[in-house]
Amino acid sequence: MTAGRRAARALLLALPWLVAGLLAGAAEIRPTRDYLSPGLRDAQEDPSRHPGWLWVEEGEALWREGARSCQSCHGDIAGMAGVAARYPAVAEDGALLNLEGRIERCRARHQGAPAFGYESEPLLALTAAVALRSHGQPVAVETGGAAAPFLEEGRRFYEARQGQLNLSCGQCHDDNAGRRLRGDVISNGLGTGYPAYRLDWNTLGSLHRRLRACSLGVRAEQLPLGAPEYLALELFLASRAAGLPIEAPGLRR
Ligand code: HEC
Ligand code: HEC
């Protein structure tokens, strides 16, 4: 089959539930855990059954490691409570940073060490360990002031129809939330569970890795991890999740 015919066929298969979704109308935004199977939902809260905790433990060790450790400036990692709920955030120099970007900046500026790199094991581990300190806390990102232009950029990206399937994020994550697609139950597309351990990946992964999968799903261009577009999108997703609990480290199928 040619790419064009494959896309046409995929669209045809998707048509019934798209129409049904439009008839159902947009629903409220719910925590992602509400869309998980009961088994996954329970395991997400149980360190003994959640492989993501291996990364948390590694991150806690990294936090204390070396002469100029994270701990040497920040004290015990418990002091990071609530921080992840405020990210992405605009830094002193006007750049929008997510938690990964914030940690990389400390690494470069305060530790004088080379960047870990996006999706590297130590960066995922530190991000998971810091994010865990906000587990259960309500998302509360700043959306006004310097953050406002980024929020708008993220909103535009979210609402734009994309890829060969010509679908916006909201056509799946608002109009069709709760419905099944290829064995998944479509959630409201929030970033609250990331970094998350996906059984399908067999590892812990970042939100941007998941966003690349959704871009691929609609046959749109996959942007690089940490791309400005994905960062702005991450802020918009967090604004949609305002008041909902941080679930990181999440557990996904
Ligand atoms: C030499 C001191 C120093 C070291 C070492 C350091 N940081 Fe920082 N960190 C800071 C300062 C200062 C800030 C406040 C923002 C700024 O001025 O860069 C900060 C901010 C942060 C924030 C954001 C806090 C908030 O409330 O928004 C996080 C998260 C963070 N650091 C994580 C880390 C991690 C993880 C490491 C180790 C890899 C680390 N830091 C190492 C000094 C340090
Ligand atoms: C064709 C439907 C579809 C489109 C369009 C789509 N996604 Fe998804 N997305 C999914 C499915 C299916 C999953 C996996 C189940 C779930 O968690 O919702 C998913 C997962 C996600 C997740 C992870 C949720 C979690 O907690 O694991 C996020 C975040 C997300 N999508 C955001 C987006 C964004 C942003 C866009 C637009 C750039 C988008 N998606 C476009 C179908 C879609």
Q: How would the global form be characterised?
A: globular
- The gyration radius over C-alpha positions equals 19 Å
Give the names of the bound compounds.
heme C
**Averaged pLDDT:** 93
Number of helices: 10
Observed structural traits:
2 domains; binds heme C; mainly alpha; Cytochrome Bc1 Complex, Chain D, domain 2; 3-stranded mixed sheet
Short account of what is shown:
The chain is mainly alpha-helical and 253 residues long. The protein is built from 10 helices and 7 strands.
Describe this structure in words.
This protein has helices spanning 3-24, 38-44, 53-64, 70-74, 99-110, 121-132, 148-159, 169-173, 207-217, 228-240, and strands at residues 89-90, 96-97, 180-181, 184-185, 196-198, 203-205, 250-252. The protein has a 3-stranded mixed β-sheet with strand order 6-5-7. A two-stranded antiparallel sheet has the order 1-2. Strands 3-4 form a two-stranded antiparallel ribbon. The chain has 10 helices and 7 strands. By secondary structure, it is mainly alpha-helical. A hairpin with a 2-residue loop joins strand 3 (180-181) and strand 4. Helix 3 packs across helix 6 (121-132), helix 5 (99-110) packs across helix 6 (121-132) and helix 7 (148-159) crosses helix 10 (228-240). It has 2 domains: 28-45 and 139-252, Orthogonal Bundle (Cytochrome Bc1 Complex, Chain D, domain 2); 47-132, Cytochrome c-like domain (Cytochrome Bc1 Complex, Chain D, domain 2). The mean pLDDT is 93. The structure holds heme C (HEC) (2 copies). Residues 68, 70, 72-74, 83, 102-103, 106-107, 110-111, 126, 130 line the site of one heme C (HEC). It is found in: Periplasm. Heterodimer of SoxA and SoxX.
